[in-house]
Design brief:
Blueprint: H1 2-23, E1 45-48, E2 53-55, E3 63-69, H2 76-94, H3 96-99, E4 102-108, H4 116-123, E5 131-134, H5 137-146, E6 151-156, E7 162-166, E8 170-173, E9 179-182, H6 189-199
Parallel strand pairs: 3-4, 4-5
Antiparallel strand pairs: 1-2, 1-5, 3-8, 6-7, 8-9
């Protein structure tokens, strides 16, 4: 009988000890952004859809979503820009103050056709704060090189136009211009919003 009593007394004390041990654990380490330390991004000088000279430094202090594409793209570019826009809008609704700190940016890799006016017409279909940029062939190449984006003019299409092969990556940068992560526009707006919630704080 004494032995059973001793066991019964020991069990609650053991539970308390385990609880205290759990409380003593150090807090989990913050997640490391997947692109931390990567050599992606940098200074550029391009022209906005309103005709203004725009530089990377103009966005200092803001989180930045950056996507390189072209307005004549038949499917991938509009889909990617739509999903990043919808994802950002969802994030803004959930966290208005943080969402306001995120600046979406579209950069054309087709300077031959994508004039500021054409870029302006394109971005008007998406997020209201989306900035559209283009420039000379030299300016666009310099920007693409800085952001590790590949692009090249494709074959001429039957209608006389052409496509542009390019990297379809949506980058997220921090307030100091540091690369943080890529946004999963190959999934859906919910996935984009969830990824923003991980890194924008």
């Amino acid at each position: 009988m004494l032995e059973k009593f001793q066991i019964a007394r020991w069990v609650p004390f053991a539970a308390i000890a385990l609880t205290l041990s759990a409380c003593d654990k150090a807090p989990a380490e913050p997640l490391e952004p997947p692109l931390a330390g990567a050599s992606i991004g940098g200074e550029f000088e391009l022209t906005s859809s309103t005709g203004e000279t725009t530089r990377w430094e103009d966005f200092a202090g803001q989180y930045r979503i950056v996507y390189f594409g072209f307005t004549y793209c038949p499917d991938i570019c509009p889909t990617d820009v739509q999903r990043l826009s919808q994802g950002l809008a969802q994030f803004e609704r959930a966290k208005p103050e943080l969402g306001a700190q995120v600046q979406p940016i579209f950069i054309s890799v087709d300077p031959e056709r994508d004039t500021p006016e054409v870029v302006g017409e394109f971005i008007a279909n998406f997020h209201p704060r989306l900035v559209g940029l283009t420039g000379t062939a030299e300016q666009v190449k310099a920007a693409a090189d800085a952001f590790r984006v590949f692009y090249s003019r494709g074959e001429t299409t039957p209608g006389g136009g052409y496509l542009v092969d390019h990297s379809a990556i949506v980058y997220l940068f921090g307030p100091d211009g540091e690369p943080l992560a890529t946004l999963p526009t190959d999934q859906d707006a919910e996935a984009v919003a969830a990824e923003l919630a991980k890194w924008v704080s």
